[in-house]
Amino acid sequence: MRQNIVAGNWKMNNTLDEGLKLTSEVVNMVQDELTNNNVQVILGCPFVHLTSVQKLTNGTKLALSAQNCHEEAKGAYTGEISATMLKSVPVQYVIIGHSERRQYFGESHDTLTKKTDTLLAHNLTPIFCCGESLDIREKGEHVAYVCNQLKDSLFHLSAEDFARLVIAYEPIWAIGTGVTASNEQAQEMHLAIRSFIADKYGKEVAEGTPILYGGSVKPDNAKALFACPDVDGGLVGGASLKSRDFVDIAKSF
Ligand SMILES: O=C[C@H](O)COP(=O)(O)O
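Structure for Triosephosphate isomerase, as requested:
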């Protein structure tokens, strides 16, 4: 059975105190209420929160994710954070290729290839984001566009390494807009992604790869989205900032 995952992406929100309060609430609710053992709950925190949040999540069902990392393992890159540093926290997951980083920080396919390699070399799990703009969807090019994002950044990997990834499909038009992809739109794309992976790496790898949906996931739409056969969970932005909403989403399987 594939691993179901609900990952919160706090983005650039929360002071340290706010982040620790949110974490404590999530830890307690998950411990008391989450009975489904096939759901991995992940907190994707800003760098400055990671060490403190790790102390609260250590020994619980929660795992920790960073929201980015530099592609080089170390060196003179003022202001950057390396995979080695993240591993030392320790963090288990790292979100890469989020559309906000592609758009505002110019992350290229090539950079994402290097980041993926570096993370895997440090035994960190990349949560690789992909997704199309509204313009691309309206032209009917969304499937090809997203498949190319995967091909250009990831298809140099061996099947063994590809099997270590988590993919997050996030249509840009649904991020932070309150507009969620319909269940049919999400399933269509997730199935297309899985088939594309199967063509390259075979059915076993494709069937084992968790593919998360991101884009205005809320407690009231999570159940229907997660019921789609190829949707294995969510990458949750806004709703991950509210403990009750986030844990209710995690309980939607
Ligand atoms: O990484 C999370 C996504 O960008 C979704 O954000 P959102 O749930 O606020 O739409």
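The first helix runs from residue 16 to 33.
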